[in-house]
Amino acid sequence: MVHIRALDPSASPLDYFGAELRRKREEAGLKQSELGACIFCTGSLVGQIETAKKVPTRDFSERVDAALGTGVLGNRTEEDLDAKLAARMERQRILEREHPPVTWVVLSEAVLHQEIGGANVMREQLAHLLTMRDRRWLDVQVLPFEAGQHPGLMGSFTTMRFDGDPDIVYTEDFMQGHMTANPEAVREGALRYDQLQAIALSVENSAALIARVMEERYGNEPGPDQRDVA
After folding, report:
1. Pick the residue with more confidence: 225 or 191?
2. Which domains does the chain have, with CATH numbers?
């Protein structure tokens, strides 16, 4: 009997990618060797990526998207959106673990002013950010308009470090996201983040700015529709 390693999708991006790859492959009714034949690689490579033993390359990911039909944006139904919201809320529970990942966030001041979903939604979102101050392993800094030109203007990115897995940089554009463990890309991401953190407001001043925008732009009274904040 073949032993299939059980993955925890929340453990790391590699585990999540592997679990999703396995799920989509099985939904398509394909064996690892059959999927490998479709994308011009070995079934062994598919298995290594499914078990998070190997980092998928961009070429591999694009071929898998084409073979399994997972790279198309398409039209989202209400059920699709509900499922994505539920998945996002589930991912947030990672921050509620007994030993959560240390998380440092630098966001543009423009995020605070770009109204999406209405004033009530924005107020709840900003209030949620303020509650993060009580978590010593999570810091939120705001990059003020006064910072001018900065390394984040080319787009958002996320750098992730792991004890037992390769460090990763995740970027995305309007078409797709891309994850890489390329050492040069990881170093560049770390450097850009350090530069952004250096010119951002302190955690305390960032919280004060968030509170001020919440009160002045969106009002500080809670709305009648209290929902989970994604």
Report:
1. 191
2. 13-68 (1.10.260.40), 99-218 (no CATH)
